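Intended use. Records such as the DUF721 domain-containing protein entry shown here are meant for training and evaluating sequence-to-structure methods. They are not intended to support clinical decisions.
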Amino acid sequence: MSKPDNVFQQTGKHIKTGNLTFLTTQVAQWQRLTKMIQPLLPQPEQWQVVCYQNGSLIITGENQAMISQLSYLQNQYVSKLSQLEGLKDLQRIQVRLRNKSISKAPSSEPSKPIPPETQEMLRSAADFVSDPKLSQALLRLASNKK
């Protein structure tokens, strides 16, 4: 059996760039592998390659049921994926759960200024309240500062 190519092995050429070139190459290779394997897997959009080294492919998914199914049918997927260029030496697949990425949606509307009458009511409430912290909070709210 021939020794498998390790496309992620460092060559020592990247000393000056702090391995940035090497890491960029790694990420690009994983993205390429992700695009190659997705059509062959159930629910293609949820899988992502995170590593491929020494015949072991590590992929992540967001659905535990699909991860369990892929793990159970690993041998069939290994034989199917090992026919792809770049995965010829594939021996096993490790599947991990990935947290769903939640992106914060920016607020669509900027906060509106408080009308002058409301500001005056907040100031008078701050004068009326005996608690100094609450009074300060009301004054800050009345001044429209964030």
